[in-house]
UniProtKB/TrEMBL annotation:
<keyword id="KW-0479">Metal-binding</keyword>
<dbReference type="InterPro" id="IPR001697">
    <property type="entry name" value="Pyr_Knase"/>
</dbReference>
<feature type="domain" description="Pyruvate kinase barrel">
    <location>
        <begin position="30"/>
        <end position="360"/>
    </location>
</feature>
<keyword id="KW-0808">Transferase</keyword>
<dbReference type="InterPro" id="IPR015795">
    <property type="entry name" value="Pyrv_Knase_C"/>
</dbReference>
<dbReference type="GO" id="GO:0004743">
    <property type="term" value="F:pyruvate kinase activity"/>
</dbReference>
<dbReference type="InterPro" id="IPR011037">
    <property type="entry name" value="Pyrv_Knase-like_insert_dom_sf"/>
</dbReference>
<protein>
    <recommendedName>
        <fullName>Pyruvate kinase</fullName>
        <ecNumber>2.7.1.40</ecNumber>
    </recommendedName>
</protein>
<dbReference type="InterPro" id="IPR036918">
    <property type="entry name" value="Pyrv_Knase_C_sf"/>
</dbReference>
<keyword id="KW-0067">ATP-binding</keyword>
<dbReference type="InterPro" id="IPR015806">
    <property type="entry name" value="Pyrv_Knase_insert_dom_sf"/>
</dbReference>
<keyword id="KW-0460">Magnesium</keyword>
<keyword id="KW-0547">Nucleotide-binding</keyword>
<comment type="similarity">
    <text>Belongs to the pyruvate kinase family.</text>
</comment>
<keyword id="KW-0670">Pyruvate</keyword>
<dbReference type="GO" id="GO:0000287">
    <property type="term" value="F:magnesium ion binding"/>
</dbReference>
<keyword id="KW-0418">Kinase</keyword>
Amino acid sequence: MHVTHLLLEEPIRMASILEPSKSSFFPAMTKIVGTLGPKSRSVEVISGCLKAGMSVARFDFSWGDIDYHQETLENLKTAVKSTKKLCAVMLDTVGPELQVVNKSEHSISLEANAVVVLTPDQDQEATSKLLPINYGGLSKAVKKGDTIFIGQYLFTGSETTSVWLEVDEVKEKDVVCVIKNSATLAGSLFTLHVSQIHIDLPTLTDKDKEVISTWGVRNNIDFLSLSYTRHAEDVRHAREYLSSLGDLNQTQIFAKIENIEGLTHFDEILQEADGIILSRGNLGIDLPPEKVFLFQKAAVYKCNMAGKPAVVTRVVDSMTDNLRPTRAEATDVANAVLDGSDSILLGAETLRGLYPVETISIVGKICAEAEKVFNQDLYFKKTVKYVGEPMTHLESIASSAVRAAIKVKASVIIVFTSTGRAARLIAKYRPTMPVLSVVIPRLKTNQLKWSFTGAFEARQSLIVRGLFPMLADPRHPAESTSATNETVLKVALDHGKASGVIKSHDRVVVCQKVGDASVVKIIELED
């Protein structure tokens, strides 16, 4: 491979590897989504997660009831106030997820080469010979020789906690399987995944709709993670449903690609969705192992070119029980950053892991190191070439702002925005410096009361690489006189100085609207 094609900046000095990592106000440009659960729901632990670098909190409704998650969210609000760290909320739907139901919660030992029967009769007791499941159509969907995987809270890939079955025969509604590896299943629910088989269930289930219309509406969720997205129609249907729920029409939909079906329709799904979550746990089972990295690189590239956030999952599984990631996992996190990922999503590592705060901290440090050697120059040229000419007005302003910032070695780009679109476009070109997105609230009314927009837009930038939002004073509109703009700019600069991002004599690139014109200007700070 020719050197110019490397995604690393050349050359990397070996001495820099021996230098200790320096901490900064922004731990990394790459964002971290943390799943909150039993080990990470106290105010103290959530505060630690926020300080360590978590900017989006994910609530996984495949377990736990509404009251449980509400209690966790109230703790999150308390932690946000005490740490003064903004955090967005993501609701993760269950979708057509197949599960083994273990009411007794006794651990189940399965021995290699033995036979186990999967039955839709959920009244049965789960044993090493019989596993009740929550789906009556499995016997119609599978045939002899098909592969079925079962594991607790997705699959760790570890042979001791997940089991691989091969369908031997179908007996009416039951499916008889041969166990391919010995494993012990523990807990009340285990996810069941049938490799490369279409499951005839809706993507947005009635249970999901109930959760969204109650918990989601009550808490004004910022993101909906749409599990098992298989078609663009799934996203359209979810958006129509959100639009019927008042303020949730602003909620962004992240399509979770979990199987071959979603992969097949990836381009259409990307067009409809606001972002993509690459669910490597399930995909790693649907795809041969040697193809997983190819999917990641291709999917992240497409998201980057579309200017939509790409979120990668399942990176440091071993940290669920250990204080350090494996060498392969540490490299995997760095490669996700070099591929162009916007965010890293932590699931079991923070949900039930023993070291949620340490996990977020270590992942953040790896991301920060990888960002230092990210080949921004090559990436910029690639993106400009992909966008082509003539560029749209906004795209041209965004790329010019980034080019100017890099040429003058600016310490930060400040962008004024009311919808967040301009800031996301600037972030699309992956500047090497942070982008401070100053969200200008807009006044709106429903004839009964006044309210301001802006909080949604600010929180939704917390999943985009390199974007750091701050809410401006609503008395200073974004598109008014230069005097009010200067006032807001001073507040933004003071914020940058207080956080240590901006110092005396630094250059700052500012992107704002003055009247009908979009302006990019470079300012040099005095003492």
